[in-house]
Design goal:
This is DUF1722 domain-containing protein. Pfam families: 2-thiour_desulf, DUF1722. It comes from Hydrogenobacter thermophilus (strain DSM 6534 / IAM 12695 / TK-6). By secondary structure, the chain is an alpha/beta fold. A five-stranded mixed sheet has the order 5-4-3-7-8. The protein folds into two domains: about 140 residues, no CATH class; about 160 residues, no CATH class. The chain contains 14 helices and nine strands. The longest helix is centred in the middle third of the chain and has 22 residues. Helix 5 packs antiparallel against helix 9, helix 6 packs antiparallel against helix 8 and helix 10 runs parallel beside helix 12. Helices cover about 50% and strands about 10% of the residues. It binds iron/sulfur cluster. The site of iron/sulfur cluster has 13 residues, from helix 2.
């Protein structure tokens, strides 16, 4: 069982069970509620923060040259207030590891926000993003930023949680690194996770770690950047399959032909989308426990975030 650093997560206040929605309601999302136990949350309601109050009349996004925020009932254009608030709030944050925002909102939505052609919402233009969310995405491009709607997709959710907990670990571990050995140790734990995301970056980071003697501070800074860049792109099933085969290779001397054939057939089903990743990683983990393969058991890839979050997800 790995131990985890608590990520610092910025969360839309309505997902943090605060009664700040336009109608005074909260949003009860099982994963968001569970994450409050495992993260240190910083809740924000951009609309309340710019003084719109609760309850409030709806605001909408419409497209001029740039997206604008408007309250049709009062005729108020509140774009500038929202942009100024976003800038000052985001600049005042401590180091954070990710953002979980409310979908479809004209302020917080990462996806599904209704964008109109005109300020009175007479003509629909497209589905897009909220104004606050757009600033978050611009300013924190290397951090995981999602909304609870997109996190219903198991692969997006797995990627979000993996990045959130890996970046929190990176931040905490590398702030204390004072020897090349410690940097190597961190890199060792993430070998397979990085391999799943980017073989190119894994090799680049391996070279960086190997040559970090004499310029440790600079190397740690560059390592952090490469780590976050590597994790940004969601791995394909083919990339996961490659990692699973590598890990399985460590175990092959211990197991018999029938066990091998069974694993290979599950792997084929995984590649076709008929099995999820947990089925395969759980098998590898069981063998690793049985044969005391500590190198595999230390790998973040086999347990990238707390198991209890997986359980919340499976029951969602
Ligand atoms: S979606 Fe954002 S702006 Fe709307 S109530 Fe929730 S926190 Fe406030």
């Amino acid at each position: 069982m790995r131990s985890f650093v608590k990520p610092v997560l910025v969360i839309s206040a309505c997902l943090d069970l605060q009664q700040v929605r336009y109608n005074g309601q909260v949003v009860k999302d099982e994963l968001a509620i569970k994450l409050r136990e495992y993260c240190q949350t910083i809740a924000v309601c951009p609309e309340v923060s710019i003084g719109l109050g609760v309850p409030r009349d709806r605001v909408i996004v419409y497209m001029d040259k740039e997206p604008r925020l408007f309250q049709p009932s009062t005729g108020r254009d509140i774009t500038q207030e929202m942009l100024s608030f976003s800038e000052s709030f985001l600049s005042s944050l401590p180091e954070v590891d990710g953002f979980l925002l409310k979908s479809k909102s004209p302020s917080c939505g990462i996806s599904g926000t209704l964008v109109y052609k005109d300020p009175y919402a007479k003509e629909f233009y497209k589905r897009g993003k909220g104004l606050f969310a757009l600033r978050v995405l611009e300013k924190f491009e290397l951090l995981p930023v999602e909304d609870e709607g997109r996190l219903k997709n198991p692969e997006i959710r797995d990627h979000f949680l993996t990045r959130l907990f890996a970046i929190a670990h990176l931040r905490s571990a590398l702030s204390r690194v004072d020897s090349v050995t410690q940097l190597m140790e961190f890199h060792r734990q993430y070998k397979y996770l990085l391999m799943a995301h980017s073989q190119v970056k894994l090799k680049e980071m391996g070279r960086l770690v190997a040559n970090s003697k004499g310029n440790l501070r600079e190397s740690v800074k560059m390592y952090s950047l490469l780590f976050m860049q590597a994790l940004k792109r969601r791995p394909s099933r083919k990339q996961h399959a490659n990692v699973l085969l590598h890990m399985f290779g460590h175990l092959s001397r211990h197991i018999n032909q029938k066990e091998k054939s069974h694993f290979v057939s599950l792997m084929e089903k995984f590649k076709q989308g008929k099995r999820d990743l947990y089925t395969l990683t759980d098998i590898i983990k069981s063998f690793a426990y049985r044969f005391e393969e500590s190198y595999l058991l230390e790998q973040a890839y086999l347990e990238p975030y707390p198991e209890e979050l997986k359980d919340a997800i499976i029951n969602n």
